[in-house]
From TrEMBL:
Residues 26-460 form the AMP-dependent synthetase/ligase domain. Pfam families: AMP-binding, AMP-binding_C_3. It comes from Pararcticibacter amylolyticus. This is Long-chain fatty acid--CoA ligase. The lineage of its organism: Bacteria, Pseudomonadati, Bacteroidota, Sphingobacteriia, Sphingobacteriales. Keywords: ATP-binding, Ligase, Nucleotide-binding. GO terms for cellular component: membrane. InterPro entries: AMP-binding_CS (IPR020845), AMP-dep_synth/lig_dom (IPR000873), ANL_N_sf (IPR042099). One of its GO terms (molecular function) is ATP binding.
Length: 637
């Protein structure tokens, strides 16, 4: 059976499971209610999806209509998405963290007709803007007791609770059953499945048009590359389903393969949920892995003594064992016994905190610092890196399970082409595919371009912007700089991020920032230096490290002044800045810095929902303080 041809729409992926993989009574979704994890079967999921389809058809929703989501990951998200997808509706998911004016823009640009709302806080956001959205016909709170959160303002849109919607849909379902089945069959792989709005680091949001084929081809190609995924996996989902990475790497993969999805309660409860649910696979972002790494190292080495010596010995043993295994050699009996002892004394304790059953973690959304990837590899926890953009559905490359090259994002997935192009001359240095892979291949550096099934249909209502990124030969220009190393794709930076100092030297901020982020004292860092004589930075310290070192209370972090001027704290950060600067070229080193009291945030408009810095916003917002960095006596070498 050719799965990628037969099951080529989002609703057909899930129908394939109950047709060919599992009985409909098997558990598909898990979520926590009170102190218990509730299991939801495939049958319950599909029955709820059918009831939603029935309600939407009664509303007059038809193929191509856009329906909105502003909700945390939950079973309701899956039910509603499946319900609208099988009648040809288009999913418009909105990041819950966006400001009201941004949400209003998206709802109007996409002409959203309904919106599923996850919490009282989000409902209040929607109520403030609802009457400014003429296309909005229904607001659907996904929680009970929403009525007490309504004010007396008149609403142009109707409002109905999710449970009431299901009840209404079930009543009319018998009369719509044949129509729903016909609609599902009428959905083509070339039809629009989702609009995912991405603002990037500049400009107003753009709706990325992704078809059913974009999603399903991406899933089948990814599964061909990561063959270790089986039908009994349990994924723990915590990254937002409003982001294309989690939607593809967890939701759609599980629909295609028949895996279970457990929804984490929150980021704060993620560690607890991991220990409870014991996942076998989890998608994550590099920052989470960096925090686990920093916490493990700090906990083991802070007090010094025997505990620190055992930890450092175990990690060094794991490193030696990993490198020999990755070279395809036999580690030998003595080293293997040492590795078992290291696992018993150190590694098993870290693994227990993840539930003890992880086969691998899938890292995406940003570059994973090489030292962090190697650290997990030393512990025997496999981290596979992936790369892509919203515009590429998203996966373009992903690490093969048995062939890891740290610092790269893996091999090109099947049935697409990836090129490296000189951004100035437009000369294409090389075009690589899954089939041309060679473990010794190296290429020059340039812009990464891609052509094939993963490339979006275009930007919604923005043909000019579409033409700027997809050329006449079908190449999508990612705006990322990279190269091929040992046959794998390696990301260097974003074109827009490149800093050119006053001497004409090109500086890629991401690898430089990642060098300084090795410090357990540093939480975030933003490099400055375009058209300047030297590099400076705004540094956000690790709150935990700062509190532990200086005994600070919450009041310290709530002070109105944006930057920390305390000389003792500045010198404490400067120690690590000086040490880590030795790993960089002189023109890349930080010569002066400011310490920001609190992190850059989505709410302040300083970073995107995928945690990329909005360079122009930050430089404008802190222009006065940045200029001072070039007027003060420098604190570097």
């Amino acid at each position: 059976m050719n799965l990628k041809n037969e099951f080529n729409t989002v609703p057909k992926l899930l129908r394939n499971v109950v047709k060919n993989i599992h009985p409909e009574t098997k558990t598909f979704l898990l979520h926590k209610q009170g102190n218990e994890w509730k299991e939801i079967s495939y049958k319950e999921t599909l029955d709820n999806a059918d009831a939603i389809s029935s309600y939407l058809l009664d509303m007059g929703i038809r193929k191509g209509d856009r329906l909105g989501f502003i909700i945390e990951n939950s079973p309701q998200y899956i039910f509603y998405d499946q319900g609208l997808q099988q009648i040809g509706g288009v999913n418009v998911s909105v990041y819950p963290t966006l400001a009201e004016h941004e949400i209003e823009y998206i709802l109007n640009d996409a002409e959203v007709r309904t919106i599923l709302v996850g919490t009282p806080f989000l409902l209040r956001k929607i109520l403030k803007i609802a009457n400014n959205c003429p296309s909005l016909e229904r607001i659907i709170p996904a929680f009970e007791g929403y009525e007490k959160h309504l004010d007396n303002q008149p609403l142009n849109a109707g409002i109905i609770g999710f449970s009431a919607l299901l009840e209404e849909g079930r009543k009319s379902l018998p009369s719509h059953r044949n129509e729903i089945n016909a609609c599902r069959e009428a959905v083509l792989s070339s039809d629009l499945s989702a609009l995912i709005y991405t603002s990037g680091t500049t400009g107003i949001p753009k709706g990325v048009m992704l078809t059913h084929a974009n999603f399903t081809d991406n899933v089948w190609a990814s599964l061909e590359q990561i063959t270790i995924v089986n039908t009994e996996e349990l994924f723990l989902s915590f990254l937002p389903l409003s982001h294309v990475f989690e939607r593809t790497a967890t939701y759609h993969i599980c629909c295609a393969k028949g895996c279970k999805i457990a929804f984490s309660q929150s980021l704060e409860l993620l560690a607890k949920n991991m220990e409870e649910i014991k996942p076998t696979v989890m998608s994550c972002v590099p920052r989470l892995l960096e925090r686990i790494h920093d916490k493990a190292v700090k906990s083991a080495t802070q007090a010094g003594g025997a505990k620190a010596r055992v930890f450092n010995w175990a990690v060094a043993t794991g490193k030696k064992y990993r490198e020999i295994k990755e070279a395809g050699k036999n580690p030998g009996l003595f080293l293997s016994l040492q590795r078992k002892l290291a696992d018993k004394l150190v590694f098993s304790k870290v693994k227990e905190k993840t539930g003890g059953r992880l086969k691998f973690l899938l890292s995406g959304g940003a570059a994973l610092p090489q030292n962090v990837g190697e650290f997990f590899g030393n512990l025997g926890i496999k981290v596979l890196e992936g790369f892509g953009l919203t515009e590429t559905s998203p996966v373009m490359a992903v690490t093969e399970y048995d062939r890891q090259v740290y610092g790269t994002v893996g091999r090109i997935i099947p049935r697409i082409e990836v090129g490296i192009q000189d951004p100035d001359t437009r000369k294409i240095y090389t075009i690589q595919t899954h089939d041309t892979f060679h473990p010794e291949f190296e290429s020059p550096e340039g812009e990464i371009i891609v052509r094939g099934h993963c490339v979006m249909k275009g930007y919604w209502n923005k043909p000019e912007e579409t033409a700027m990124v997809i050329d006449q030969e079908g190449w999508f220009h990612t705006g990322d700089i990279g190269l091929f190393h040992k046959g794998n794709l390696k990301i260097t930076d974003r074109i827009k991020n490149i800093l050119v100092n006053s001497y004409g030297k090109n500086i890629y901020p991401t690898p430089v920032e990642n060098t300084y982020l090795k410090s357990q004292k540093i939480e975030q860092i933003f490099l400055i230096g375009d058209k300047r004589e030297y590099i400076t930075a705004i540094i956000v310290p690790s709150k935990d490290s700062l509190q532990h070192q200086f005994g600070l209370t919450e009041e310290f972090f709530q002070r109105p002044d944006m930057f920390i001027e305390d000389e003792e704290i500045v010198n404490w950060i400067a120690q690590d800045v000086r040490t880590l600067s030795n790993e960089l070229a002189k023109f890349e080193r930080i010569k002066n810095f400011k310490i920001k009291r609190n992190p850059f945030s989505i709410e302040a408009g300083e970073i995107t929902p995928s945690l990329k810095a909005k360079r122009k916003v930050i430089e404008k917002k802190y222009a006065e303080d940045i200029n001072k960095l070039y007027q003060e006596e420098v604190a570097g070498d």
